[in-house]
Amino acid sequence: MEPRNTKKYDRAKKRVDQLKGFYIHFLVYVCVNAFILINIYLNLRNGESFWQWGHFFVLFAWGIGIGFHAAKTFGFNPILGKNWEERQIQKYMEQDRDDANKFI
Fold it and tell me: For a surface tag, which of 8, 21, 22, 56 has the fewest beta carbons within 10 Å of its beta carbon?
């Protein structure tokens, strides 16, 4: 194994920590929402429907947060696209180079 202070190791460790954080977040989401929905189901009054918006509000709202966390963890960014930042850096570096060459 390579020494622990290499850049490759640090990047891999950071990636593993991100994945672990997401999986823990997702597990907590599933457990807490299962508990909430089971509790609601067991405490329904006679004739009351389980399928009400209020019963699923936490599931839905927290699910949006889980979606953003997953997008960040797995690198999904439909707005800026893959490698957007790198392309922008290259674009501005080329503009600076072209501007510098104008006066030569």
Answer: 8
